[in-house]
Predict the structure of Glucosyl transferase GtrII.
Amino acid sequence: MKEYFEKQRNVILSKKDLIVPSIIFTVIFLLFAHVYLLVNDIRNHDSLLFNGYGAGITSGRWALQFMGETVDKIWGGYNIPFFNTAVSLILITIISVLLILIFDINKKVNAIFISGIFVVFPSLTATLIYTFTAHYYIFAILLVFIATYIIDESKISFIISTLLVAFAIGIYQAYLPFYISLLCLKSINDCIKGEDFKDILKRGIKYLVSIVLSLVIYMIILKIVLAITGLTLSSYRNIDTMGSVGVFELLRRMLIAYVDIVRLPFHMIFSVNKTLIIKFSILILYIVSFIMVIFTLKKMKEKKLKLLFLALILVLPFALNSSVIMASRGYTYSLMSYTLVFIFILPLLFLDKYDFDIKLIKVSNMVTYSILTLAIINYIWSSNGNYLALKTKMSYAEHYYNRLISRIESTEGYIEGRMIALVGEFSDKSEVDLWRNPDLSFNYDINTDTFLRENIRLTFIKNFVGKKIHIVSNEDAKKLAKRKEVREMPPYPYYGSVKQIDNVMVVRLRNIDNLFEQ
């Protein structure tokens, strides 16, 4: 053990000239992209509570529940955005260093760009928005990167890696694709370096075994935990059917996964390519990667190595988009698509191994660095746009609810503690919520919701307006919606839209017929 740590110390010292500037630039990029979140209280619809860690065992996330409950007992599981975000950013900085070590990066500028694009990617922004659980999720990613880094050291490290990944996907299942992608890219990187065919193949088989074992261990522990607790998996997004995909459905998802990667330069997918700049960037990087693949194949002398390298390149799209294959109903979103960041990193793996003296490499470097600079600036801009939009929507909802409560309290018949019925949907045509528009070029898919939604009204009012109100159940609201006197009331905010009926303060909203469709 002492020898191992001494070896790692020497490796880090040998890469010090790359790691130090990489950390400095990583911190700079992180601050530019995420400081607005760090210094403001910004929530999305799922992070309105002041405690908790999210869905646990019933969503298959037994490790998340274990960590969440452990922290709650030791410290208190409070949702403190500054602290949770700061912890997340520290962890992501460590991960960016591991990226350099895993791919054995040799050039300082490549290390900076790899770290830079990794810490501004939309999936990180989407994760950090979930302030109550982001630090657990980032910790899971860290475990996957540690597992990838140590897997080749020994038999014990192989076992440790497999267990770490099993625990990581017990926090969030969508991080198994991270492991798959990293191992695939690690093998591609070994081919580029010209390592021995047999060694790469042996390691590849070992990687496959580790991937399968980690998933098996995760499932075994999940079944044991479900049996002990007496809980069952939630039907939300078909989580309870996890692992029971038919052959034809599996093939369909595999096709979608591949096609989505091909379509990235032309169609918006998972919010990672909303702007024309990013679509253009991906197209150019595809071209550079293709040229580098051809260049590498020509340099390789061993036929077996060429075939293995080509096979890995063809498998890579499946690896990068394997969340589509694994997800229930194939449904994915930006939070689950972090592995697509490797599309931006792949050209650098090639260019890092070749000499600048070659004209093709020199031109490819200039193009890649220019494109990555544009992409990093674009993603920094997008992150700040999303944070500003959420902050503004929170402020909008707070003012809206304050006006609503003032109106209720000033209505004849109101007394403190009286039940309130919000009948219908908030759809005030005099109000403008520009930030909710999903067509805004910076809006990610985690930023198209509203804080006026029926199932989060009470939570928002309690936690951000500071009012303890009692709202009738949805069933009681439906009964009131059928009453003639309620249907004849004008919709809020018109005069007469709030009235006391049978000791209940009724607020007649719009679209009350939609209640009967729920």
